[in-house]
Amino acid sequence: MITTYERSILMKTSRVIPALIAASSLFLAALSGAVSTSASAKPTSVAAKKSVYKLLWSQEFNGSKRVYPSDKVWNYDTGNNGGWGNNENEYYTMTNARTDGRGSMVIKATKIPPGDITASSCVNCSYFSSRITTQGKLGFKYGRMQARVQMPKGDGTWPAFWLLGSNITNVPWPTCGEIDMFEVGTDPNTPISTIHGPVSGFMGITNGGYYNSAPLSNTYHTYTMDWTPNKFSFYFDNNTHPYFSITRAEAESSTYNNEKWVFNHEFFLILNLAMGGNFVGGAPDPAINTASLKFDYIRYYSINGVGTLYRH
C-alpha cells in the first residue's frame, strides 16, 4: 500500500578508505579480545523521495464578471427529488451558482419567498440552492483532488464536495461507490471525509473528521484528497499528515464487515449546498436568509504519473 507515494531509498554513507580503516580496527581489537561497540559500522541513512504532482485540470474562477459555471464542464441537478434521499429542504436551480467577479465561484442558498410557486410544489422546500456536477463531461481516476473553500455559516447548512462512480447509470448506489472529500454537518469547525461502498452504505467508512479551532466559515481553507489504487488520504490546509486515511486492506477486513473496494474506476464530481437533512440533524435555522459556499479554486493532479482525467 502506498500513502502519498513516498518511497525510501538507501543511501550508502561508507566509502572505501574509511571502510578499510574500520575493518582493520575491528580485526586488531578482536585479536586483543576487546571489541568495542563504538567501533561498529555507522547506520545507513534513509532519504525520502518526494512525490511529483502534475496539474491535469483546474477551475480557477478568475475574472471580473459574474458568470455561471462553464457548461463545458458543469451540469445542474435541479429540483428537490424527494429530499434527495436525505430529507433535505432545498430546491436546486440553475441560477444559484455563479462566479462573484472577485476570484471565487459561489453556491448561494436563498430563502424561498412566501407564495412562490416552487414552495407550493415542494412543501418541504424552504431555500433555493444549486448542485453542479461533471457527470458525462469530466471524470477522474486516482490522483490528487484539491479545493480552497470557505464554508457557509448557519445551523443546518450542509456543504459538500464529493464524487460518484461514473457507472452509476448501470450500477446503483452504493455499489458504484461514493467518495466524500468533505462535508460539514452539525459541527461548523469539522470537515468530515467518508467513503461509501456496497457494505457500509449510508454510514460509510469515516472517522471523526478534522477539528479546526475556529468555524470553517471564518475564512478559506484548503481541502486535499490523495487517491491511489488502494488508499485514500485526506488533508486539511496542506498538513503533512492526513487526518483520515483508509486502505483497501483495512476496508476489506472484518473491522468494516469486509467492505468491497469499488474505487478503482472513473468517478465524477459533485458540488452542492444542501439546506437541512439527516446529516445536519433536521431543518435549517429559519433565521438564515442566505448562506454561501465559496470555491476559490479546484485543482486535479496526477501523483508520480498516476491519475487520469476523462473528457467526454
Description of the molecule:
The structure is a single chain. The chain starts with 6 loop residues before the first strand and ends with a strand. The chain has 3 helices and 21 strands. The chain has helices spanning 16-31, 117-121, 248-251, and strands at 7-11, 45-49, 53-59, 75-77, 90-92, 97-99, 105-111, 127-129, 131-133, 138-141, 143-150, 157-165, 178-184, 191-196, 205-206, 221-228, 231-236, 244-247, 267-275, 290-303, 308-311. The protein has 312 residues and is mainly β. The chain has 2 domains: 7-49, no CATH class; 53-311, Jelly Rolls (Sandwich), CATH 2.60.120.200. The radius of gyration is 25 Å and the shape is globular.
Whole-number radius of gyration? 25 Å
Mean pLDDT: 87
Oligomer status: single chain
The span between the termini is 31 Å
Largest sheet: 10 strands, mixed
Question: How many H/I helices?
Answer: 3
